[in-house]
Amino acid sequence: MKKSILISLFAAAAFPLAALAAGTHAGGHDMPASHGNMSMSEHSAMFGQPGDPAKVTRTIDVVMNDNMRFEPSTIDVKEGETVRFMVRNAGKTRHEMVLGSLDELKEHAKKMRANPGMVHSEPNQVNLKPGQRGTMVWQFTQPGKVDFACTEPGHLEAGMAGQVEVAH
């Protein structure tokens, strides 16, 4: 009898530890922010910051599809403008829109390939299942070009990218 109690106690103690070691699995890996977080990178601070929804000056509709394209793929904004991106996944596979430099996006795509199904949430991105809609509010603080892409495995490589032109 004592042996079965000890085994039960050991199993009860080991289960939470095994669950922690396995990570969170809901169809993918929920990685910590350090996995390639571009919203906190030096570059993203150079081109903008999460926007205040109360200060949105306009809304831009963006559609992602299984042709590995964004519609539109080129977006014009003004320096200082706060934009609400209304993003819709019109495809049958998961897609995301991530703002960053092309180098950051390529590095992030590499990490996504190494961790298929990874799901994350940062202010500079929106990740959507098929048929879902989502929003991202961003203030563009510097003139120049800001890239965006889908970093789901193979999508950026297939040409799923675009640019925001921030006019002075």
TrEMBL record:
CDD domains listed in its UniProt record: Cupredoxin_like_2 (cd04211)
Keywords of the record: Copper, Metal-binding, Periplasm, Signal
Cross-referenced InterPro entries: BlueCu_1 (IPR000923), Cu-binding_ET (IPR050845), Cupredoxin (IPR008972)
GO molecular function ontology, one term from the record: copper ion binding
Pfam families in UniProt: Copper-bind (PF00127)
Domain named Blue (type 1) copper: residues: 63-166
Subcellular location: Periplasm
Region (Disordered): 31-52
Cleavable signal peptide: 1-21
GO cellular component: periplasmic space
Protein name: Blue (Type 1) copper domain protein
